[in-house]
Design a protein that fits this description.
- By secondary structure, the chain is an alpha+beta fold.
- Helices cover 13% and strands 28% of the residues.
- It has five helices and ten strands; from the N terminus they run ααββαββαββαββββ.
- The strands form two sheets. Strands 1, 3, 4, 7, 8 and 9 form a six-stranded mixed sheet that branches. A four-stranded mixed sheet has the order 2-10-5-6.
- The chain is globular, with a radius of gyration of 17 Å.
Length: 199
C-alpha cells in the first residue's frame, strides 16, 4: 500500500544515492498542475523571449530545428516522488540564450506559460548543460498533460520549476516570484536541501 501511494524505497545503494532526501522512487509519471490542460493550436502558437535580452520570436519549427539535446535525467517532484532515468529530447537552453543575446545585467528569468502560470529561476540555474526546452519524452512528442508542445526542463530543481506549456522567457535584472512561490513554495527549490516550502 505504501509503495503504491508514495513509490518505493530502494536497498540498492547506487540508486539510493541518486534520490534526494525525503523522496521515494516511482516508475509512474504523476500529472500535477494547476488548472486545466490547455488545448494547443499550433497554427497560432508562438514563443517569445524578451526583457534583458534581444527580443526573439522563434516559431516551433525553428526551435525544434536547433541542436537537439537528449539523455537520461532524474526528476524529484515536490510531492516526495523521484522518477529516475527519464528520456527527454529538446533544445539546449544555451541555444536559446545564444539567440537571445542576454544582457550582462540579467540575473533571473521568468518562464511564462499558458493560463498565466509562471516559474522563476536565477539565470545561473537556468544556464546549465542539462536544462532544455523539451518537446519529446520517451521518444514520443510530449503528451498534453505533460506540457505539449513544449516545456522547460530543469532537472536540478523540484519539478514545479520545469514549467509546462511554456510560451516565453522573460529575462530580468531582479528576482520575481513565480506562481507557486507566491503560494508558499520555496523560491530556490533545491531537492538535495529539501527546499519544498518557504519558511
Amino acid at each position: 500500500m505504501f509503495e503504491r501511494l508514495f513509490g518505493s524505497t530502494t536497498k540498492d545503494p547506487a540508486i539510493a544515492a541518486r534520490i534526494p532526501p525525503g523522496q521515494y522512487k516511482t516508475d509512474k509519471f504523476p500529472v500535477l498542475h494547476y488548472g486545466s490542460v490547455p488545448k494547443t493550436n499550433l497554427a497560432t502558437w508562438d514563443f517569445r523571449v524578451w526583457g534583458e535580452s534581444m527580443p526573439v520570436h522563434p516559431d516551433l519549427a525553428a526551435i525544434q530545428g536547433t541542436a537537439a539535446q537528449d539523455g537520461p535525467h532524474g526528476h524529484p517532484l515536490c510531492h516526495r516522488w523521484t522518477k529516475l532515468d527519464t528520456d527527454w529530447e529538446g533544445v539546449p537552453i544555451q541555444e536559446i540564450l545564444r539567440l537571445a543575446q542576454v544582457r550582462p545585467k540579467a540575473t533571473h528569468v521568468v518562464a511564462h506559460s499558458e493560463q498565466g502560470y509562471t516559474a522563476n529561476l536565477p539565470l545561473s540555474v537556468l544556464d546549465d548543460d542539462d536544462v532544455m526546452l523539451a518537446d519529446t519524452f520517451g521518444g514520443e512528442p510530449l503528451e498534453p498533460e505533460h506540457g505539449y508542445p513544449l516545456r522547460l526542463l530543469v532537472p536540478k530543481r523540484y519539478f514545479w520549476k520545469s514549467a509546462k506549456w511554456i510560451r516565453g522567457l522573460e529575462f530580468l535584472d531582479h528576482d520575481q516570484l513565480g506562481f507557486w512561490e507566491r503560494y508558499g513554495y520555496n523560491n530556490d527549490a533545491d531537492p538535495w536541501k529539501e527546499e519544498r516550502f518557504s519558511e
